[in-house]
Structures
1.
Amino acid sequence: MMAHYLESIRNGLASMPPAYIRGRVAGVSGLSVELAGLDPHVAVGDRIELCARGGRTVAAEIVGFRNGRSTAMVFGDLEGLGPGSSADIGFGGTNISAGGSLAVSAAWLGRVIDPLGQALDGKGPLPPGPHPRPLRAAPPEATTRARLGPRLDLGVRVLNSFTTCRTGQRLGLFAGSGVGKSTLLSMLARHTACDVAVISLVGERGREVREFLEDDLGAAGLARSVVVVATSDSPPLMRREAAYAAMTIAEHFRDEGKSVLLLMDSVTRFCLALREIGLSAGEPPATRGYPPSVFAELPRMLERAGPGPLLPDRPPGHITALFTVLVEGDDHNEPVADAVRGILDGHVVMDRRIGETGRYPAIDVLRSLSRSVPGCNSDAENALTRRARALLALYADMADMVRLGAYKAGNDPAVDEAVALAPRIEAVLHQSRNDHTSIEDSFDALADAMTMKDPV
């Protein structure tokens, strides 16, 4: 009897129309919208729906409160919004809820999506998973998360040998514009020994998206990947959400015990989106125009990558992450680059001058390091890379004198060795984007180049 009564109550509740709390637009200034009538019912991060002229609806998010009114920013454009436009609480889509969550499933592999979980590839809607995950989540507890796993084959000789990466490690890829970081990311997406790749294109040029998917990533790379895209013309909320959505998808597969490769291009554009949001919400500019909230949010997002929590019944999953940092004017000490370098487990520096010589990937091994080395390599491998670095450093110091003829061969045996071997090492570091080299083969090629007696 009681079960029948409860069932009738559930059926009655299910048949009731959804309730909405309605406010109104009180003002629009720049990128922000002021709302009246919602203050007691909303908090920062809540999703609402704005009704523009002609019945068009626009998703928005509460980003702050000021002078007794709520401040929101939209996920679309502001066209058609004006004083009196309605603002409703209760917005929800197929894959993203009012609290900001994604219902990720394995069926998302091979798909290209936007930050709200909507398909961009014309293959139909994404099937939602059974358990939505919040876009904002805390990193695993530091004392209960697993340690880094074994070294990970990235498929790129210069990275495998000089900045060897372990499963669950986080590396920063620092480069100016046009140095080849997108091509390097595509090599990593195709060649890294992982179960799943999650790729976040934050603020990417619209014309380059298809080129990246079809030419750089390819069908084989896309098949095991989920690609989240927010182009440069997207509102700042969408560019910010592209980073959170990719991290949430990576966490879903990590919690299934998988080894996940997360590639984010770029953290700089994520921070620029945070800056636009913070300034629109009324935050004061601080370091080079960045409000303080940017440097508070950055570690919260980056720390979510890495080893997963320890599990009693099976090995933990890992998120191995590479975050690109677009250094403005090749200034590697600008605020975002400096903050990211201090948080991550190593940094890879791409140099424009190396690219101009025709050697790609244009990675400067003397300025790049992985904090997991030397612990993950053998003593012989560590000795090999130390000697190679020393030879490259000595050659870099003497290169101008050699070119000018100011150095005479035979004056210093160490310089003679560097002059003979440095070009051979550089030849090993050159690699086409379709070439894959394992960790063992990378060290073997480096050893061969440093022991050859005849010029290459």
Note: Residues 91-98 have pLDDT under 50 and may be disordered.
2.
Amino acid sequence: MGDIGRAVRDRAESFGFEKIVYYNRSKLSPELEKQCEYASTLEELVSVSDVISINCPLNRSTYHLIDDSLISKMKDGVVIVNTARGAVIHEQDMIKHLKTGKIGAAGLDVFENEPVPSKELLDMPSVLALPHMGTHTVQAFSDMESWTIHNIRSALLTGKVQTIVPEQKNTKFN
């Protein structure tokens, strides 16, 4: 439950979720965790979840993270929401399980084969698909421009950027 996961948690509370369980590289501090429960494995998380919100980067360890094997450990009728990266889910496995009802519904704004999502997936009545456009606001663009300028200046002056993604934490920019 990184920054995005915690933002999703805060929004989910207003929808009446009774319990929020998360899986992360390590357990969060109590002030970041709030009233959430930590699952020590991804398998434990998916086995108790009615709704799974995917909020992780796409890298070697998360490519097709959600696949046939992991889906088989989920509750029947689970709802999957992916706003992270499309290839975190093995799309054909998801389609197979949407057809059987193992996955009850999917909310997606990212797809494995962008920019051309699967027509079969888009035609499924249990799939809500939207374009990935959470940052398409005037304020978000303005903030990104300011952060970019700030990071370029910092990289030139200190060799480090201020808002780096965790995967590039030890990268030197000089």
Note: The chain has two domains: 3-134, 135-173.
3.
Amino acid sequence: MTSRALIVGVSGINGTALAETLTAQNWQVWGLSRGRTAVPEGCQAIQVDLTDAAAVKEALKDITVDSVFFSVWARQENEKENIRVNAAMVRNVLEALGDRLTGGHAALITGLKHYLGPFDAYGKGDVPMTPFREEQGRQPVDNFYYAQEDELFAAAEKYHFSWSVHRPHTIIGFALGNAMNMGQTLAVYATLCKVNNQPFVFPGSQAQWEGVTDMTDSHLLADQLLWAATSENAKNQDFNVVNGDVFRWKWMWGEIARYFDIEPVGFDGEPQPLEARMQQADAQWREIAARYDLKEADVTRLASWWHTDADLGRPMEVFTDISKSRKAGFTGYRSTRDCFFELFDRLKANHIIP
């Protein structure tokens, strides 16, 4: 029988990779989104406002799936609102599916803000010792990730399905219009540097420049999601998920610069955030898009300066232990440098960057 999946947030960086992975495995895939970006090929698109419980129930009334995957959030003005809005989106979908998910599986993608705290208190509390491990649990702060988890746990108990929670680090992957996309942001930044004959200046902190870190390829995350949905060892468990290698930005920055044939400049005493330095990027990118006949002239649909600043500006070392999923049977691995280069190649092939 054909397996059936619902991906909530199908057009995002995680949803796109997961849809590609599942359709390649001959799954039947429905994708929920707000309709701002086309869904991946092979998916059946459902456009709905996830905050509207009645609309979600109506949209899903005729759909029965084996697995539902959540990769969705909507940034609000504060964490209280983040909790209200983002928890409701998970709850609305699970309540709409109800007993039709009995015996199935639901997976929730969150991230390392589980350990670092939400944006309102990012890295300001008693951050656990690295590498982060699942056993370290929750931090004593409000966090919409925890609220989403609680909705998942409650629905799993009510409707009798298994669950898994997946915590990637910063994700490398292909998606347009995504709010958190470091790989594409760095590709756009490097392109601007090359066209304007400017150096590729590291924007972040000394701690990130010198410390050990890791990242997560979107297709590796998709592989873990597929494994968790079909493995007895993964039921009702939380898992970190990263590529499996570690690096320092003081090395990786030069590797990315060499790919684009530009001059790298490392940390020179003070962070130089991109958001403050990219004030002219909108106009410059429109000119570049016209000159090279690129598909996307709106730089805000490609680059998320604020999010890349947040990741590269962290005042502490951040990397992750993935022993738990390895012991449970998931042994996926990616080379982070290769993941960057593969993304850059795909952006070129799709005429997103010149």
Note: Residues 90 and 157 are 15 Å apart (CA to CA).
4.
Amino acid sequence: MFKKVLIANRGEIAVRIIRACREMGIRTVAVYSEIDKEALHTQLADEAVCIGPAMPKDSYLNMANILSACVLSGAEAIHPGFGFLSENPKFAKMCRECNIKFIGPDYETIEYMGNKAKAREIMKLSDVPVVPGYEGEIRDEKHALEIAENIGYPIMIKAAAGGGGKGIRIAYNEEEFLMGYKTAKAEAKACFGDDTLYIEKFIQKPKHIEFQILADEYGNIVHLGERECSMQRKNQKVLEEAPSNVLNEELRIKMGEIAKRAALAVDYKNAGTIEFLFDKDNNFYFMEMNTRIQVEHPITEMITGIDLVKEQLRIASGEKLRFTQDDIKIKGHAIECRVNAEDPEHDFRPCPGVIEELCVPGGMGVRIDSAIFAGYKIPHCYDSMIAKVISFGNTREEAIVKMNRALSEFAVGGVKTNIDFDLSILQTKEFLEGDYDTTFLSEMMVKKDA
């Protein structure tokens, strides 16, 4: 096992990783930007190294500075968390070249799965169901229009190197397609430095269901069940739950085995997530693979009793998986709500500032993953998520009751948050009945504004 690990991240995920390392007797090195000097992760780690100014490009995306911090501190491995450099194949490759263990898959796998067009091609060759679409190179706008007409509207245009909801447009006719093609191409170039697009059939009103997988370096692989991630606003998840109430055991086994097949197709190692679109007729299609720990990983931990971060560390250090698929048992129900420093009354604009007062919920069946404290100043230059509230119950109904109670107790003074918005979701008939899809929140917001 590693003696010292550097965490190339900040906020709640950095704190989460530090805590796992501490319980395993592993020393930790935090990195921080100048604006994060007093952040909780810098206080909890055994060592902390400043890696640059506040803006991500100068600090948390600064590969040379992070690698230098790792070498100088004597850390043997780097855990990238999620976001920032976690799915950057160049960074993973640089780690290998510096003889530093990257806690995640090989850089080749990240490269394959990071390009959505390439990932789709690999899945299709491995008999993993994919949404009907076009895998080849799109020569120009005219060629793109021909492809769209052959597939049939509605069409989804997506950035091949994209993520986080960027570079995506939906078109229901030729006029919308031509406009969407141009804007998606420009956005892809601006966000990812790569304007390559791919085109596929748009599945209307789908559910977003993802399977958590773990794979060691010896070819052993398991899935840990699914997460229901359909509660989204502008392609960003707001609330997740596990398991999904639309899957019966037969379908869960089938999808889980296909998720494992998808991971094996790219010789996957460590923790990863296979994401599917699930339609009203119980058809499911591979959407993408996230080659990192997910924001919503705690709900899988709650229903399986498996600490995913600790398993990541064990796998990266060369240990074999300690369990087989038959050992994985799903028990109870878990829900996660993301708490963001944002103003729902003004188009969810970010609300950085000082947390003047803080009351954090607790009690049986409630978990809080966060890095905030009273007096903490939320920076303006990073993601607005400040906490994750996770509830667990023996049944879905019990998990919902606990989440309602926890969110009602959660008080953050000095900045606006989306806590009341999260509570409003829990009261809707659609959520209570589990009858919602990826369009639900946007439709709810339209009705509210009407």
Note: The chain has a mean pLDDT of 95.
